[in-house]
Every structure is written in C-alpha cells, then in structure tokens.
Design brief:
The chain is an alpha/beta fold. The protein has 3 domains: 130 residues, 3-Layer(aba) Sandwich (Cobalt-precorrin-4 Transmethylase, domain 1); 84 residues, Rossmann fold (3-Layer(aba) Sandwich), CATH 3.40.50; 98 residues, 4-hydroxy-3-methylbut-2-enyl diphosphate reductase, catalytic domain (Cobalt-precorrin-4 Transmethylase, domain 1). The protein has a 5-stranded parallel sheet, sandwiched between helices. Strand 1 and strand 2 form a beta hairpin. Helix 4 packs parallel to helix 5. It is flat. It starts with a strand and ends in a 16-residue tail after the last strand. 40% of the residues are buried.
C-alpha cells in the first residue's frame, strides 16, 4: 500500500511507496462525450474558425470546466444573459441545454447573429411539449428544478402550461384543472430507473395521461447508466469524471451506489482524487459523464498508474455510432 503523509494546512499530499500494489480498472464503455455535446463544441470551434474572435456563448456550452476553459482560451466569451453582450455584431451561440423561447426572440429584437447549439434530442422534447400544448393538454415535465434544460423546456410554453415534478412523491401533490387531458415529457439526462418510477406513478394517478412514443431520456444517458450498472457490482470503488452541475454525471454516481458500489464519487480532474479514499480498493470502476472529454479519462488512469500497478479492462455494453450534423452555415 502507498504511504501517504498529508499537510492539510498547505493542502499538499506527499506519497511514498515501499512497493506498488495491484489495482484493476474496469473502464465503462460507452463513456464521455455524447453526440449532442460533441456537436455543440464543434459549433463553437467552427464559429471561431469562420468568424474569428470573440464568439459569445450564452451559458456554459456544456457542463465541463475543462471544455469551457479550453474554448475560452480559443476566444469564446461565456455569459449568462444576452444583456452582457455588446451590440458589436459578433456571433452568439446558445448552449446544448436549450433556451427558453424568449431568448432567441430577444436576440432577434437586437438584430443579433445567433447560432443554436441545442442538442437535437432536447429540441425533440421542446417540439413534443409544443405539440401537446397545441392539443390543449397540460404538460407534466419530469426534471430537476433550476437545470438549464428544464428552464429551456418550460420556457417554450406560456407560464402555467407546464407542471414540474422531480420525485415520485411530487406526483401526489400535482394539481391540475384537466386531469383527463395530460401529457408528460422528461429532461433528457435523468436516471432511467427514477424516471420510470415517476412515470409509473403518473400513470397510476392519471390513467389517461399521454407520453412520448419513445422515452425522452437520451441514448447516451441510458447507455452510460447501463454500463455503470454492469461494473458497479464488481467494483470496490467507482469514479465518475464529471462536473458538479452536470445532471448526467450526478446520476451516474447515484446509479453506481444503487447497483452495489456504495464507494462512488465524482471528480473533475485527476488532481481532485483523494488517495486516502483508495484504502483496500483492488478493483476501481471508472466512467465519464457525457460532457467529459476522453483526455480526462486518460489523465485519471495515468494518475492511478503512478500509485498502483494498473490493469485496465474495458467493459463495453454497446457501440455508439450516433452523430449530429452541425449547421450548414458553419461549413459552407
């Protein structure tokens, strides 16, 4: 085992070794970037190439500090609201999470040149909600209050047209005037299991409620959770590489704990690893949220190699081949 001395006052870790011990990393696959995240990042990079610096981005393009900092270094300027952007004619990009309908309307009123990087799967939920509303239905949205995707979806429709529920318990408190004319949609990055339980509760309370033909949770979220379900029971500990504000990354930690690995944690970078946490760990599960690049996975593996004799076993449950096209205006 490594011998570790810690100076907490200076936040410095001294690691010494009599000899390295063995550890097996079960590397989940699929992991990391999904097609929507990859598309959004490409949109910013292509806009910088085509139009030069700066390019403004409303909200973090994706929830990952490493990605955001990398794009900032290339010339992207990140803002939270349009009123932070000067009227200088520079491109404005909307993040992958989607925006309320008022945002592009405000951009048009200011004659801004904007590019929408909303994930196509999030846009699908927006269109579903609009279609249900057009049919006179009240929409129940399953999601997390305050998440940008939820704000964007609820912002597609007039105030009061969408009721948000976060848990099974919330379903009992839903108050609607037209209980026989309801429909549900969901945030794309939720726990598959938790969402299924909420849908079941909705259907028990409102037997006539309508839902999408295909569940709104995106393929990448589903696949990454499924991979964690396979490796979690075999792991003494499990690391998810992701950001604290990343919904899909937080769900991976929850799934790992629910499926047999109570010793699960999230880190943003290898430098966040607390080596004291590795005591008695022989098998380490490793995955990355949909906004985390593969370079951060490699970084964590290399950090573990400095402390242990590492064997990496990739556990692939499905091969992903989904891609989303970027706007033609950026490639023409």
């Amino acid at each position: 085992m490594p011998t570790i001395a810690i100076d907490l006052s200076r936040k410095i870790f001294y690691i010494g070794f009599m000899s390295k011990t063995d550890i097996t990393i079960l590397l989940a696959s699929p992991r990391g970037f999904c097609a929507g995240v990859d598309r959004a990042i490409q949109i910013v990079e292509l806009a910088l190439q085509k139009y030069g610096e700066p390019v403004y981005v409303r909200h973090e393009i994706v929830h990952n500090k490493f990605v955001v900092d990398s794009l900032r270094d290339k010339g992207a300027i990140f803002v939270e609201e349009l009123d932070e952007i000067p009227d200088d004619g520079r491109p404005v990009i909307f993040s992958a999470h989607g925006v309320p309908k008022k945002v592009p309307q405000d951009a048009k009123e200011r004659d801004m040149f904007y590019i929408d990087a909303t994930c196509p799967l999030v846009s699908k939920v927006h269109r579903e909600a609009e279609r249900y509303h057009k049919d006179g239905k009240t929409i129940i949205l399953i999601g997390h209050e305050g998440h940008p995707e939820v704000i964007g979806t609820m912002g597609q429709l007039p105030k009061g047209a969408v009721v948000l529920v976060e848990t099974v318990e919330d379903v009992a408190g839903v108050q609607v005037d037209n209980a026989d004319n309801l429909a549900w949609c969901s945030q794309t990055t939720l726990s598959v299991d938790d969402t299924s339980d909420i849908v079941d509760a909705l259907q028990r309370r409102f037997p006539d409620i309508h839902g999408p033909h295909k569940e709104d949770i995106c393929y990448a979220t589903t696949n990454r959770q499924a991979a964690v379900k396979v490796i979690a029971p075999k792991s003494d500990a499990l690391i998810v590489i992701g950001a604290p504000n990343s919904s899909n990354s937080n769900r991976l930690v929850e799934v790992a704990k629910s499926y047999g690995c109570r010793h699960a944690m999230m880190v943003q970078r290898a430098s966040d690893i607390d080596w004291r946490w590795f005591e008695n760990v022989k098998t380490l599960g490793l995955t990355a949220g949909a906004s985390a690049p593969e370079t951060l996975v490699d970084e964590v593996i290399e950090a573990v190699r400095k402390v242990y004799n590492v064997t990496v076993e990739e556990v692939e449950i499905v091969e992903e081949d989904v891609t989303f096209k970027v706007p033609r205006s950026l490639t023409a």
